[in-house]
Every structure is written in C-alpha cells, then in structure tokens.
Design goal:
heterodimer, A: alpha/beta, Rossmann fold, six-stranded mixed sheet, four-stranded antiparallel sheet, 11 helices, globular, B: mainly alpha, 9 helices, elongated
C-alpha cells in the first residue's frame, strides 16, 4: 500500500499540486487520471522520489519515504519498478542487457541464473527472440514490453507506469494494459498508472484518482466513475462521444430498459432507433 | 545570478558524486568503457594534430631564425619547448574539449531527456556516481597519456619536416633536442594536462546532466559545454603559467 499525505509541489511561483492525499491499494491497479497539465506526472514523480515535495509525505507500507535518506531510500527504491512514457531503455544496450541491468547491479547470482530470470520475464511479457536486438530496432509496443520486463525483473512490490499507452495503437494499448493488469495480480504488486486513456480506465482501473488543476477532484472505483455526478470528471471522461453513448447504454441497462444479455455485435448491427427504450403507451 | 546558481549546482554535483558504489564491478566496467571512448576514441585526431603542429613549428621557427649567429640546432630546442610547454597540453586539450567534451555532454543530455537517468534513479542507483565519476576518472587517466603521446609525435613531426624540407639534418635536430633540456617542463605540462582533463570531463558532464528540454537543448548544452571548457582551459593555462613558471 502507498499512502500519499497532503502533497504540495510548486515550481517557481507556479503551484502544480495542492494538498493531495490518497491511498494506493495493494495488489490493485490504481489509476491517476486527468487532462494534460493537471499534475498527475508531478504527483507520480513525487511518489517515486524523482521530485521532492514542498510539503507532505509518501508512505510505502507505513514507512515514510519522503523523510528517508541515503541507504534506507535506496532500499525502498529497489522495491520500485517504473515503466516510463518513452520506455527509457538504454540505447547502447541490447534487450537482454537492458533487462539484465538491474540484476547485474543488485544481484549476486551467477550469470546463468540472471539470464534465466531475464528470459523468464521476457517470456512473461510475450517477447521472445528479441534478446539481441537494440531498442532502435523495436516497435513502440515492443519497447514498452522490454521496459515492463526491466521494471519487474527484480520482483518489485510497487510498479509505476507513466502513460503506458502513449504513442501506441488501440490494439497494442489493450495488450499492454492487460499485461500490466495480469502482472499486478500475478505478483501481487501495488500498481500506480498515470493515464488519460479512458479505455485503460475501464479496462484495468480498480481504483481511480482524478486530478484537476493540481487538486484531487474525485476518487473511486471504475464502476463508480461512470455514474459520478462530478461535472469536471464527467466533462473529462465523456469528452468522447463513444463513452457518452456507452454511459447512456449502461444507464438503460441499469434501469432495465434494455437487456444486458444483448452483445455488442447485435447492438451494432441494429438500427439506432432500436436502442430507444420502449415507451409506456406502446 | 545564473552564473552563481550554475557554480553552486556544479559544486553540489561533486558533493553528490562520492557515494559507495552499488556494485563495484559495474562501475569498473563503466570506467573501462569511458577510458576506451575518451582515450582510444580521440587517438587518431590527437596524432594527426600533433604531427602537423610539430612540422609547422619547425618550418615557422626556421623562417624566423635568419641570423647566422644562431646555431641551427636552436630550431629543435624551440620546437621541443613549444610543443612540450604549450602545443601538446593546451592545443590538444582544446581539441579534446570539442571531441570528448561534446560527446560527454550529448550522451548525458540524451540520457536525461529520454528519462534514462530517471530510470537509473528509480532503480536506486546514484546516477552522479555511476555516470559522472567514471568519466572524470577516465579523463584524468587517459588525457595526460594522450598529451605525452602528443609531445612525442609533435617533436617527431618537427624532425620529419626539418629533414624533408632540408632545413636541418636529423642529427642536428636530435642534438638540439638534448641541449638545455629542462625536465620540469614535462612535469609542468603534465600538471596542466591533469587540470585540463578535469575541466574537459566535468564541465560537459555538468551541462549534459542538468539539461532540460529536447533535442535542441542537448545541442545547445553541448555547444555551451565546449565553449565554457575552452575558455576555462585558456584561463587555467594562463594561471598555471603565471604561478608555476619562474619568470
């Protein structure tokens, strides 16, 4: 569990985060959502220690990470894996060397054992036969998988993903989302994901924190988000027509006006008029 | 104001650089890698520059020494001392500030911009120790060696030009090299090369490590690093000459 308590962060005269508190639940995908410039990346960087908050604390399983110094901080960092927006792979190293890097730095195991572990995590992210390739030879989705493999190679307790879907097509995004979700459950990791992709929210978000202009505007589950009455949140999540329609359908389902047994294909092939709920006088 | 902020951050960079390595073997590997990049990577250009500088010095000295009262072996003495005192340490280091300095600044700048430094920080690695210290240590080892090589090649280049153009014979040149030789000149050149090596590695590392922005800023940081390094090398050259050479 990661606890964020009254985090504040400013750059020069500009306040980026104002008094944000939240709890990221263990073994779940915790999402931080919000439009660009809402402070979600800064909040995540404060959580992992890349930025020092002006005020407030970040607690990892009860230990105050913000107040820690030197070796204690390093020990917590060894339990953190992070998937960066641009993958942040080392350009001059092959896929295998990239994934093995944390092991070489922190593990005293034999080379054979380390190599086995590298192959194990590469298999886990469905990336085989790419060990000798350099990052420049990989597609965006493959880079993300390598970065994910590197992030989990030391068996972290906490996984941070900054915009894991940025620059990816919808299909690959879905694959990466599902992979993160599966890994979170499989390794019982506390995962924190920064995103503004609503598909990810609905697909993998167990717990969602919505940021607006540096403040926590709303938090709840992905089941609650669609029915939220928060106007700013609604403006954000229903900016897409598709999601607005999905919400309308969900509400019709909830009120029993359409059957939730009908599958998407059936709905897509019917005339849109058939989605209109039957009126009382008919 | 910015200059004081930069000096402060530069000093803080050193403060943060000295911590216990997470894994000595990985740091050693990085040090060897940097030795190869800085040392062997600059070998060709240093060799070419040194030979030509020596050759040009010989021809120009001969052109200016027109008095029949001055023995021809003086040409070799002047070339030797000029190469040892100034050309090998200063000129070679100015070239290295461009070759190795821009490489260090752009490498670290690219790592910063593409979040590779952040990735290392997240892993719990002291990035200043892992990325900057091996570069400075490698420069302190390899650049003085390159300067010593430049001295030898410069003097040899002078001999080559002297014999090829018939200014003086090889034996007179060799005789001149041994006359009035002051061993302190070599020590002075080495002191200068150590100071310059430190400048060549640390200034570009500073500008690269703290770069903000994108590709354009990496280029700007790299150029700024080379310019500042060159100015500091010339300033340190004057200061060391004034302090260490008896006048």
């Amino acid at each position: 569990m990661i606890e964020v308590k009254n985090i504040k962060k400013s750059f020069a005269d500009k306040t980026v985060i104002e008094d944000v508190s939240s709890v990221m639940k263990a073994g779940q995908c915790n999402l931080i959502i919000g439009s660009s410039g809402s402070g979600k990346t800064v909040l995540m960087k404060c959580m992992v220690g890349l930025f020092e908050p002006d005020d407030g604390d970040v607690l990892y399983s009860g230990q105050n990470f913000t107040k820690m110094k030197g070796q204690d901080k390093t020990e917590i960092r060894k339990e953190i894996g992070m998937l960066f927006q641009g993958s942040a792979l080392f350009d001059s190293q092959t896929v295998e060397q990239n994934v093995m890097f944390p092991l070489n730095m922190f593990s005293k195991d034999s080379h054979k054992k380390k190599l086995d572990r590298v192959n194990e995590v590469l298999n886990r992210v469905n990336l085989v036969d790419s060990n000798r390739k350099f990052p420049s030879e990989l597609s965006g989705g493959m880079k993300k998988r390598v970065a994910l493999a590197r992030a989990i190679v030391l068996n972290p307790k906490y996984l941070f993903c900054d915009e894991p879907n940025s620059g990816l097509d919808p299909q690959t995004s879905l694959v990466i989302d599902r992979l993160i979700k599966e890994i979170t459950i499989e390794y019982n990791i506390t995962t924190v994901i920064n995103t503004h992709d609503m598909n990810s929210v609905m697909e993998i978000g167990n717990y969602i924190l919505y940021m607006f202009e540096g403040n926590k505007e709303w938090e709840g589950t992905n089941k609650e988000i669609i029915f939220s009455k928060n106007q700013r949140l609604n403006d954000f999540i229903f900016a897409s027509e598709f999601l607005r329609d999905a919400k309308d359908m969900r509400m019709l389902e909830e009120s029993g006006k359409i059957s939730n047994d009908r599958n998407m294909e059936e709905l897509m092939h019917k005339d849109s008029a058939s989605l209109v709920p039957p009126t009382e006088d008919k | 104001m910015t200059i004081f902020t930069d000096i402060g951050r530069y000093l803080l960079m050193f403060k943060g650089m000295f911590s216990k390595p997470e894994n000595g073997r990985m740091y050693w590997k990085e040090f060897i890698h940097q030795c190869t990049e800085i040392g062997f990577g600059s070998l060709g250009i240093v060799a070419i520059i040194s030979v030509f500088i020596g050759a040009v010095s010989t021809i120009q000295t001969a052109y200016q020494l027109v008095s029949p009262l001055i023995p021809p072996s003086t040409i070799a003495q002047i070339v030797r001392d000029t190469v040892i005192l100034e050309f090998a340490p200063t000129l070679v280091c100015i070239v290295l500030a461009g070759v190795a300095g821009s490489r260090i600044a752009s490498e670290l700048g690219n790592m910063r911009v593409s979040e590779q430094i952040d990735a290392l920080e997240i892993m719990g690695i002291n990035t200043k120790t892992y990325l900057i210290l091996p570069k400075i240590a490698a420069a302190l080892l390899m650049i003085p060696l390159l300067v010593v090589m430049a001295m030898a090649l410069g003097i040899w280049g002078g001999r080559l030009a002297a014999t090829a153009s018939g200014i003086i014979s090889g034996s007179i040149y060799d005789k001149g090299l041994l006359e009035f030789f002051v061993p302190f000149n070599v020590i002075f050149a080495l002191i200068k090369s150590y100071v310059f090596s430190f400048i060549i590695a640390s200034i570009p590392a500073f500008y690269g490590y703290y770069v903000k922005g994108g590709a354009l800023e990496i280029g700007r940081a790299s150029t700024k690093a080379v310019v500042i390094s060159c100015i500091l090398i010339l300033f340190a050259d004057y200061l060391l000459s004034a302090l260490l050479l008896p006048t």
